[in-house]
Amino acid sequence: MRLIALLVLVTPGIIAVYGIKLIRDTLFGEFHDVFFHIAIQGLLGVVFVIGGLAFIGGFILHRDKKRNLTKGRFKQNKEPK
């Protein structure tokens, strides 16, 4: 079970690292032939970084909420207003 959790966290991490590489290559003007334009390469790099970090953050938040480690910060009120 821990191996599956590790793989679930490593895959978006690798995608985020590749996004950082795409952003760096865009800033230094190194164009990859897969993309049609250098701006698309940079934009996709930003999407990869934000998406990877959001997935990892959401995974950690979900795990902490399940183990009651958030100190009630994210509890939802069930009372009707």
Automatic annotation (TrEMBL):
Annotated TM spans: 35-61
Cited InterPro entries: Uncharacterised_YqzF
Transmembrane as UniProt keyword: yes
Pfam family, one: DUF2627
Lineage top rank: taxon: Bacteria
Keywords, comma-separated and alphabetical: Membrane, Transmembrane, Transmembrane helix
The protein, known as: DUF2627 domain-containing protein
